[in-house]
Amino acid sequence: MQNEIDLKRILHRIDNRGYKAYKDLEGEYDFREYILIIDHVQSDPFAPPSQVRIKVPQRIAGFPKEISYDNKSRNVALCDFLTRRFFDASKKFCKGNRGTGKSGIISIDRPGQEILERTSVFVTGEYIEVRFVMGLPAFGRKIAGSHAETMFCGEIPDIIEASLHYKNLDKKKLFEHIETVEDSDFLRDQLSILGIVAFVSDGAILPRASGVDPRPLTCGMVIPFKSPESFRVDVELPNRGTITGMGIPKGVTLIVGGGYHGKSTLLRALELGVYNHIPGDGREFVVTDPDTIKIRAEDGRRIEKVDISPFISNLPFGRDTQAFSTEDASGSTSQAANIIEALEAGARVLLIDEDTSATNFMIRDQRMQELVSKDREPITPFIDKVRQLYRDLGVSTILAIGGSGEYFNVSDFVICMVEYKPYDLTEEAMAIAEKYGVSRSPEGGETFGRIIERIPLSHSFDPSKGRREVKISTKGLHSIAFGSHMIDLGAMEQLVDISQTRAIGSTIHHATSYMDGKRTLKEIVDTVIKETTENGLDVIDRRPMGNYARFRGLELAFAINRLRTLSVRKEGTKS
Questions:
Q1: What DSSP character marks residue 379?
Q2: What number of H helices and E strands is found in the chain?
Q3: Taking the domains of the chain in order of start, what are their residue ranges?
Q4: pLDDT in tens, 133-167
């Protein structure tokens, strides 16, 4: 293995040469207190930055076992904390742009409000590994060797000492970070035992700073959450002790209230309760069942052989809805398909906001039923299937709604938001339902119907583009370029980090190795999730990538279903 002196010697030799001479740097270097690994050098100053790793032995880093690798929750939390500290230190010690293009940058995957398992930092009993990027400096396309030497031999050592040495970290913040994640994971694991699908702690701050700023609201009227007594649950956490909050039971729950009183704010917090949050976020102990998915209408999406017959049947001209396909779905059709696909992928809780739903999918009132008889209306509205979802499939629904009291007749619980405060109005809603009775005719039949799984066909997944056999890239948080096709994830509202999107794109390609024409989509997704859980996200790429983040099987299935070239056959059929 080469050392720091060898690195300097190479930099002196290639100084002022053409940029491609930087390729001579690739390899490993022993810096005594850490190993520097240059995995990939960018092709020019304007290309994506070079990929670099650092390995610091634990004898130098000095992290105690009990906070570094004693259990998965603590390990993920520590890796997240170190990623944030490395990012902060790089901003402090890196002098920034010096030269052409991306020259002079040192950066790492930047986490947001959520704490995700990432490939940016790994902590074991032997070492800490950090993966980051560097913009190797140049003026024009001529190597700036002295600037590169400053980065490698001056700035990086300072960043490492400030962010990766246990003795130099703020222990109070470190332990708070770790214990918050451990408590949140414990709380989420308790949901099923407690018979609830979600928990919102007393004192939680749910409103965000703005629609584009996910940090907590700190100015104006900030109302801490307080559970109604009838929904209050006490939970003993490993570190924090007993906390209290609102437990939303299994079944059908309505969130009602006037406009601007907090219905959607509560629902949004529940959407993101599948993730852990950083201390100070306000939603640290807002947790939901890990198999919770937000459902909305999605006009224009492609649908491939989905059995939407529980919601849509008897189409004109005898069109089949048990294997329904379209290149341009309507709002109601897309929402029906989204639910069926979610159930197929293993969703246990559905979150639905009336504001982002197709009106004719949610309900048909008495007058419309009288004008347009059922034999002329293909759509069975959600109101007639929501109870069957829970009774037949054990799938709960939390619905934010303000426009139809007909849902009182099919709900188990009603939470009313008044000035961002929740009230239990279940008895009042039931009394109103009894007072007015059932004005409309149920249209849902006796059962929900079975979920028929589909088998994806590998030939429909082509990641090639031009001369590249594999060309997959992200185009923002909600878009993946997969070969020559775009995957639109705009309706995936629970996606929070572009590193998740990036990982999903690579995982779709990796998943094709399991597509043998026999495995169902769920079997493939479950296999990949198990593989990445046991062996880490590195299994989805042959290169040691530092910008992948953990996603759920629900998101992977969601993305596969939106590949416009997807071809499937239904289980038990030949086509």
A1: B
A2: 16, 30
A3: 2-169, 454-570
A4: 999 999 999 999 999 999 999 999 999 999 999 99
